[in-house]
Structure formats: C-alpha cells, structure tokens
Amino acid sequence: xxxxxxxxxxxxxxxxxxxxxxxxxxxxxxxxxxxxxxxxxxxxxxxxxxxxxxxxxxxxxxxxxxxxxxxxxxxxxxxxxxxxxxxxxxxxxxxxxxxxxxxxxxxxxxxxxxxxxxxxxxxxxxxxxxxxxxxxxxxxxxxxxxxxxxxxxxxxxxxxxxxxxxxxxxxxx
Length: 173
Ligand SMILES: CC(C)(COP(=O)(O)OP(=O)(O)OC[C@H]1O[C@@H](n2cnc3c(N)ncnc32)[C@H](O)[C@@H]1OP(=O)(O)O)[C@@H](O)C(=O)NCCC(=O)NCCS
Known about the structure:
Blueprint: E1 4-7, H1 14-26, H2 43-52, E2 66-73, E3 76-84, H3 89-95, E4 98-102, H4 111-126, E5 130-136, H5 140-148, E6 152-159, E7 164-172
Antiparallel strand pairs: 1-2, 2-3, 3-4, 5-7, 6-7
The structure holds coenzyme A.
C-alpha cells in the first residue's frame, strides 16, 4: 500500500477534490476539516477560498487564518485536515484548532491517526504550543485518534446549533 503524505492543495488536485467531495456527499458524511467544501461544488472555487484563508492580506472578514492540507495515498486524495491558527470565540467554545475527515473508502486503514500525527509539526511551525481538538461524544474513531496522540480530556460542551455534545481534548506540542 502506498505511503501517506500531507500536501498543500493545488491545481493538480482539482479532480481529486471533486471526487473526494462526491464520495463524502454520497455517504452522507460530515466534512470536518475541509473548509467550505460541503457548500462549494466547484473545486477551483474551493481552492481559491482555501488559499485566501491562508494569508492575512486575503483573509475573509470574521475568519481566522487556517492551513488546509490534503492527505494523499499515491494519487488518491484519502483525507483532509485543517489547522486553525488561532481560536475565535466559536472555535474556543466548540470546535478547536483542528478538523479532519477521511473519505469512506479509505477509512479504518490508519489514515485519520496518521494525519493528526503528521500535522503536529505543522502546528508547532505555526507557533502553537498546545492545540485543542474536539470530537462528538458519539465518534469513537475520532476519540481514539485524539487519545493516540496524547490528547488530555478537558470537558464536554453542548453545541446548540447542531444540538450535539463535543468532547474537548488538549494536545501539548
Ligand atoms: C473519524 C475518521 C476521521 C476516522 O478516520 P480513519 O482513517 O477511519 O481512522 P483510523 O483508521 O486511523 O482509526 C482510528 C481508530 O478508530 C477505530 N475506528 C475507525 N472507525 C471506527 C468506527 N466507525 N467505529 C469505531 N471505531 C472506529 C479504528 O479501529 C482505530 O482504532 P485502533 O487505533 O484501536 O486500531 C473518519 O471516520 C471520518 O472522516 N469521519 C467523518 C468526519 C469526522 O468525524 N471527523 C472527525 C471530526 S473530530
């Protein structure tokens, strides 16, 4: 099996991004850590939006700087992971620094676990010394991933908009 690698999204990934999105939509999956992919059908538009969110000069109002990465297995886009550089009020209260998703056909092969580990040096490079990672209390896979990288449970909060409970963990870098 090909090894995994994290890369910045670029023009060369457009068809893979469309394919990835279609598979997640067909499966009715959430798209955590994929930026606005769930509402943006055109991969080029998504790419430009992602790039705009990665630089202060182009950051849309009300957003925080973020780094979007793709997890590639060979030529296959297996997963996406996003690092939010700072926590605004919503992120501090609920979602934390990191989001990630693995396409259904690539799940249960260690990709989610690998991605979170691989993004930790990226977080350090951004200047973070600890990160908050949250998962639904109904998501044992994500909980396992967070714990496997030393996540320390902090608290469970209720997110009223989606009416869900989020477990929040901190990972020291
Ligand atoms: C959560 C998610 C990222 C897991 O990705 P993955 O690549 O399947 O994860 P891994 O293969 O690294 O599995 C991690 C652990 O969870 C376990 N696991 C995976 N899927 C599971 C499931 N549906 N139920 C229970 N355990 C599960 C694995 O066996 C593994 O445990 P182990 O370390 O004891 O072997 C993926 O299911 C996903 O994208 N879900 C939708 C988006 C999402 O929930 N993102 C997380 C937001 S916090």
